[in-house]
Amino acid sequence: MNIEMGANWVEGVAHEGEARNDDVNPIWSIVNNELGLTTFCSNYDNIASNTYNEDGTGLYDEDFVKRTIDEANEVQKKGNKISERPRSDDISVMAMQRFFEHTPYGPTKPVDMVIDYYMNDYEFAEPPRVTSVQSTHPLPTFVKFGKNVYFVADQRGYESVVHYIAGQYLETDGLGAIVDPRLMLNKAVQEITYSQDCVTVKTEDGWLYEAEYVMVSVSLGVLQSNLITFSPPLPEWKTFSLYQFDMAVYTKIFLKFPKRFWPVGSGTEFFLYASSRRGYYPIWQHLEKEYPGCSILLVTITDDESRRIEQQSDEHTKAEAMEVLRKMFPDRDVPDATDIFVPCWWSDKFFRGSFSNWPIGVDSYEYDQIRKPVGRVHFTGEHTSEHYNGYVHGAYLAGKHSADILIDHAKREK
């Protein structure tokens, strides 16, 4: 059985009959209509009844957790009003919470913290103190396309979306596999040299590739690193805009067990661990619905906890996770996990994080600068999507937009 190392969900899908034809998430159209991938709608409605205490007593009182969630939701709705103000009035989500006298922080409020984490960090991969209110309240993806999220659990993999799109432009064989000689994999770009006439790309194996234009689609984290050298160096206005944005870290840790010890059935898919340490193994999901009989748990961590875990051994991480699970299920026989998989997006030089997050006070002008070409060098990626950064559909729509810009420049030169 295969599990997804990268993106799992199509986020922003409407209830049937809810969306207009022009408001369908383009990735959902490919996943559901063109490829027919196996998907499952994720249901978080019962998460209040699946919130566990770190003191080893098991579940919190459901009504108490529901009240906590309701209070947090009310503050989120009030935050939507701030988005109607001028961009210069932008503040952090934390500042907005304090303004409305909602402070879900500190070791004495573990339930408040994990609910706050679930409603903010779980979506944006960074805490409320750095996330912009005006860019996230309300969230454009859910406003435009719908509030449902679908987990892709197909053995063909989410990557089949990429192969499907590529197959419309590149040569394929009779089985649909890409065989176009223009597609060169396992080539690490080392330097991009550009002039008024052409662009030359040098790879780590010493090869040189010359073209009229180049589209750079590496992550924001890579652009903020020294992996690729630009010659001449990118202008200050470009680097200034790139460094204003955050490259967040979102880590999904998979644990395989010899048997299932957690509850299954309707309303049990997601559960929370309310630790006095914010973001400490907070959000869990069993995959019995997606992969029946798999005995796999998925726990999501982000930001500083992701970086911390990437610097320790998988055995150490497994031991920490097992300690948490035994506190959550004190009355159950919890066996040791037989396997663990920990992606290291922050440490990987080809990613340097998972996706971008829009910080406080940055307006559309900075986004225009991020995606603006530098001579014959063009840029694309989810970080260049003004409204859908951080999402698969944001990367897709940004790619189309950047391609239009490049085509327009090429036509004007002829």
TrEMBL record:
Q: Where is the Amine oxidase domain?
A: 3-406
Pfam families in the cross-refs: Amino_oxidase
- Single annotated GO MF: flavin adenine dinucleotide binding
What superkingdom does the record give? Eukaryota
Q: Name one GO cellular component term.
A: apoplast
Task: List GO BP terms, alphabetically.
Answer: polyamine catabolic process
Q: Does the keyword Transmembrane apply?
A: no
Q: In which pathway does it act?
A: Amine and polyamine degradation; spermine degradation
- Which cofactors are required for activity? FAD
Keywords of this protein's UniProt record, alphabetized?
Answer: FAD, Flavoprotein, Oxidoreductase
> PANTHER family, from UniProt?
AMINE OXIDASE, FLAVIN MONOAMINE OXIDASE
| Family membership | Belongs to the flavin monoamine oxidase family.
Name used for this protein in its record: Amine oxidase domain-containing protein
Q: Which organism is it from?
A: Urochloa decumbens
